[in-house]
Amino acid sequence: MQNGNRKGIAQWSKTYAGKKFYTSILFLALPIILLVTFTFIPALDMVIFSFQNRDPYGTNPTYAGFSNYVTIFTDKDYLEELKSGPLFAEDKIKLRLADGKIYNALGDYQYADNKVDRSTNSIAVYADFPNASKALVANAYVDVLVEKNYRNVVLVSKKIVTLDADGDYVYLVNGNKLQKSKVVILGEKGGDYVLQNNFKAGDYLVLDKVSPQIASTKIKINVVGKTSAGEKA
Predict the structure, then answer these.
(1) Of the candidates 87, 129, 137, the residue with the CA atom closest to the CA atom of residue 108
(2) pTM value surpassing 0.90
(3) DSSP 52-74
(4) Is residue 1 predicted with pLDDT exceeding 50?
């Protein structure tokens, strides 16, 4: 019976319908192979990589469990970068050479490390710089400068921002009392912090350093100036 089935299949394959069927299979085979090779397998690799920690070159994998997923949804540095969009999308990456001069070409951002170095609270970032003039040489000392563009921010003196493990803050005036207001520090400029502008019109910002004793007492407002973020007291 099995020999008869094989003979029947062999004869059917020689018919027009059989040839059409096998030709269709051959034409479908190539796109299916390409789809599996360049879509499904890389997707599976990404899932596997998400449970690992690797160096910037993708080598030396170590099992990380769900820690990478926990970092993505809870780490303050990652969340702030997600809010601000792609890394260095609107920024200029520059080099300051050992002689103090600024290199005449901008860097092109390539990729960032997949974890925060907690000893320095930083992320390793990699960028390429064109070197047609051969001014850049191996092992030369340079400073990397990032010219960052911010939107909806305010400059506030560092002396009135209190840095705290539970969240940095400034003091605002609420009625005749002082009120802590959490702030998000985006960067620094000279003696000022660049803060995300979460202030409302009419907010009074205290310009003096506030001691714990003063924070709990009644106050009197003396307005000295205004900014687009609100008012200063």
Answers:
(1) 129
(2) no
(3) EE--TTS-S-EE-TTHHHHHHHH
(4) no
